[in-house]
Design a protein that fits this description.
Blueprint (H helix, E strand, L loop, with lengths): L11 H15 L4 E8 L4 E8 L5 E7 L4 H14 L8 E5 L8 E6 L4 E2 L11 H19 L2 E2 L2 E3 L3 E3 L2 H21 L5 H12 L1 H4 L7 E4 L8 E3 L5 E4 L6 E3 L18 H8 L6 H20 L4 H17 L3
Antiparallel strand pairs: 1-2, 2-3, 3-5, 4-5, 6-11, 7-10, 8-9, 8-13, 10-13, 11-12
Helix pairs in contact: 3-7, 4-5, 4-8, 5-9, 8-9
Length: 319
Amino acid sequence: MLEKRILNPVTKEQAQQYAVAVLENKLTCQVKNIGYVGGGSFGFVFKADIDKAPYTVIIKACRTEGMCKEETADLQRLGMDSLLPVPKVYFSFLQTADIPVDFICMEYVKGKDCFTNHTFLLKSKKQKQAFAEKVTAAMYHWHEQTNAKFGTLEQPKFDEWLDFYQPFALDILESARILVKQGKLEKFVLKSMERAWLAFDYIFSEKVEKASLIHGDLNVMNIMADENLQPTAIIDPLESKWADREFDLFQLRNLSGNAFNLYETYKKNYPVSPKCDLKTSFYALYHEVYCAIISGNKVNVILYPLVYRMNKELRKVGM
């Protein structure tokens, strides 16, 4: 059974103080200004101005074990060969007795994320489409980078994608069953997951031929753009791996992704399997429940539409 990840109990205020100490020690600099700029379930992110080049940096407090090492590796691998900038990692720091939290210090990239900046939604259809073309081209460029085995970036060891993914999906389903019994997950969510699981062999009947490099969390919140909606960087990978490239696609429709036509642009420009819509619906639902399990946070505004989409795709094929 999957379990909620244990969070480092450090507070945001404590993390900021520790971040100053880490920066001044590792970069032999003086921190002139530091402020909180955001964070998800597992981290606190700060922007810091320092008195030497590069003058502005991002430093992220990583609150779960292994997160610092994993995210550093993800950023470095994606940044090796990318059509859009990926923040450069300046250093990583593993906790000590005096500073009991891990940190990643990385390049500050200009722009605003394409979810919280609502002015991007007001851009013209032409601007949005140009944005979608550039983002999906960068995504496909990663997907064309392949490996002999499927699995994690550091230890890919599976000859077939389903050898890696099917047991993982079953773990998610079994954990979801327990959450329903505990009253922490709605029965209708589990019902949709069960329907999809019964159709697993049909949904995944097409062999995945290539183990592709994926970002793992490429939704609009992790795409930065300038005021003209020109993408400036892709940030915050999550569990990047060698995988079915279509495992990366469902995030394109999450949050306000449909407003930028990201998913349909990828499908129009690049090869996808005949069952892509069905597969990505499965991936999306199971992944969102996975995130709810490990974080302890269930985001209904994302989860509920995924249940609807899964059921809709199953009805299309008579299941």
